[in-house]
Amino acid sequence: MRQSSIVGILLYSALFIFLYFPLHGQNTWVRDSIHFDKGVEASVDFEKDLRVFFPEHDAEGRPLISISRKKNAQGAWEFWRRRQYTYTGNVLTQVHFQYWNEDLQEWQDASEKNYEFNSDGQLLQRHNLKAPDPGQDLENHQLWSYTYGSEGELLEMVKQNWDDGAWKNSARQIWAYHPNGLIQSQLVQFWVGTLWVNARQRMWEYEPGTELLKTVTSQSWNLINQEWENLARQLYANDGQFQWTGVVRQTWNPNDEAWINLERELMSYNNGVFQGRELQYWQNGQWVPRYRGSYTFDGNTINSLFDEWDPNEAIWQMAFRFQSVYEDQSRLLLDQGWQLWNADMEQWENDSDTQRNTHFWRELVSKTEDLIFKPLICPIPNPYAIGTAIECQELQAGQVYSLTLTDLSGKMIVQKRVEGGRLFSIDQALPSGLYILSLSQPQGLVHLQKLVIF
What we know:
Distance between the termini: 19 Å
């Protein structure tokens, strides 16, 4: 309950990290291995859990193979899983999964993910294969197909399962847009018998004039009454300058036919730089504080600290933290959390799910260029809510640019064409988290930034 309640706060911890640590040296250094250790509950000790090694990289520093080792019942390290990566140009097109058979002393095929892109770099298909049992031949398993409009906007995603020698429809998502290109709705349907049946939908509303996101409403389909019913909604507040100041989450009460407050998050800034967030719950007709987040930085270590409100004492009490340690070249060396504050012992102790990850790096001598971050010429809201309109007056009117969104591993998530002088947005439904957004034209890169999506 504690961690699910503050998932949004974690995103801002990540944002804080990457604002202070630009991603320099990614072309020079590659990750050699990661050591994963489990925390011993109610102590400061850790137990060795998993080791992941990256023995091969391509000339761009991208991993070609990763090998995982785990401890067996006797406490000895043994192979567990191997992943092999294939790239075509700048995109990842295949990940092959194998598991180690200790008895046969060999790697056995388990599954494979294949990605197909169009000439604009947009994902057209995701094809998953799976072995019925480890070591058997891979067979068709799942297929996702994507359709785009003339402006590069995502229109439909269809999921199919392999059954009895043929692809059978399973589910699909359909997107609709306002005339100005902003996302209007997302419809989810399931295949039942011979028909697509409504399941749920989300709808986006924007403030007139500014086109800033105002409301996102979720509904479910009532099969009996054949009508949409409200489920939940989020109300967004901003300062008028593309910075979110608060989000209120509400649920629908069908008996009273009214929206009921659940929780809200309040964001604070200092000269445009994000400072923190407070989570409040709605109780007895008023907002009651629950958690708040703050951050400390000593040059190499970032502590994301969270306090919990004590209603009896009416004060904030230290609650838990997440810690990240970097070296001088901004490479991540260690991240660990969550840890709980033991007031009696006056120390941080491990929770039941505390994990410590230690990262080891090595240098590629063939690459010496650093990743240089361009000026932020476009006022893109950060954090960013899917569907929010982006206006960039610095882009040349009529000039076509390529917008690319990647995750922190370098995997391309979104690529679309945008035109200077026109509003644009990121409309694809994405997991919350930290991404890298770039705008480019044939002459080169014009905009590059870290972007939190929530």
